């Protein structure tokens, strides 16, 4: 019963979040992604994350595997592999393989966490030539207690510099909340507004449910 109460409170909280931004989704294409995932904390410095994304309405899916290494409390490195598949309107399938390498610097101001991520993103589509992007994301996170559990609200803005073309081509602005149902399960709900020079604007909603696993030495 306690777990059901927590889930109900999470759903209610997410409803407030999404209703507050739903007006921005009108007259713009919208996509909703369901993202189950597994996180494994191998040590105090190493963490692995694998997420599977599903968009039933657009017959699309992806798998995103990442590794994170904390050099210290301010600087972390990460590398990832992203596989995306989708069915197009004319029946031709689209797929891409991405390689990602990034570094994130974090600063602290009271309870606020401000982090700046710099990332190189190589995209290998099946229907066009390789694309290369430099991505810069600035994010602000604020943790608080909600129903005796830890929640974090965050906003971020990320720009994409299209290296092949030599121009900034995409921007993503987002707001979300991450809520720990307990030590092993977390729920993340977010809204992203994407503006792309080539594909136009789109509203993105993400519902992430992550199982958090830990090495036995961390639990001791």
Name the strands of the widest sheet in spatial order: 1-2-3-4-5-6-7-8-9-10-11
Largest sheet: 11 strands, mixed, barrel
Q: What gap, in angstroms, lies between the N and C termini?
A: 28 Å
Give the number of helices: 2
Average pLDDT works out at 88
- What is the string of SSEs from the N terminus onward? HEEEEEEEEEEEH
* Quaternary structure type: single chain
Q: List segments where confidence is low: pLDDT < 50 over at least 5 consecutive residues.
A: none
Shape label: globular
Strand content is over 45%
What percent of the residues sit in helical stretches (DSSP H or I)?
10-25%
Radius of gyration: 18 Å
Please provide the count of β strands. Answer: 11
Structural class of the secondary elements?
mainly beta
Give the SSE layout:
Elements: H1 2-21, E1 30-41, E2 46-55, E3 60-70, E4 75-87, E5 93-109, E6 112-125, E7 131-146, E8 149-162, E9 167-180, E10 185-196, E11 200-214, H2 216-219
Parallel strand pairs: 1-11
Antiparallel strand pairs: 1-2, 2-3, 3-4, 4-5, 5-6, 6-7, 7-8, 8-9, 9-10, 10-11
Q: TL;DR of this structure?
A:
This protein has 2 helices and 11 strands, in the order αβββββββββββα. It has helices at residues 2-21, 216-219; strands spanning 30-41, 46-55, 60-70, 75-87, 93-109, 112-125, 131-146, 149-162, 167-180, 185-196, 200-214.
């Amino acid at each position: 019963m306690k777990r059901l109460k927590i889930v109900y409170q999470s759903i209610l909280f997410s409803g407030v979040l999404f209703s507050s931004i739903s007006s921005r989704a009108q007259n713009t294409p919208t996509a909703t992604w369901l993202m189950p995932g597994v996180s494994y904390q191998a040590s105090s410095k190493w963490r692995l994350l694998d997420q599977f994304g599903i968009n039933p309405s657009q017959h699309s899916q992806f798998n995103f595997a990442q590794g994170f290494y904390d050099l210290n409390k301010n600087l972390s490195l990460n590398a990832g592999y992203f596989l995306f598949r989708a069915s197009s309107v004319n029946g031709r399938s689209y797929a891409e393989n991405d390689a990602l390498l990034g570094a994130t610097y974090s600063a602290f101001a009271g309870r606020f966490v401000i982090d700046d991520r710099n990332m190189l993103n190589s995209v290998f589509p099946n229907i066009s030539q390789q694309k290369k992007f430099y991505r810069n994301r600035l994010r602000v996170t604020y943790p608080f207690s909600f129903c005796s559990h830890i929640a974090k609200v965050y906003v971020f803005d990320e720009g994409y510099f299209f290296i092949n073309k030599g121009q900034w081509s995409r921007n993503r602005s987002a707001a979300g909340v991450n809520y720990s149902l307990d030590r092993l399960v977390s729920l993340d709900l977010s809204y992203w507004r994407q503006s792309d020079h080539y594909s136009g604007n789109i509203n993105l909603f993400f519902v992430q449910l992550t199982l958090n696993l830990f090495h036995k030495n961390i639990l001791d």
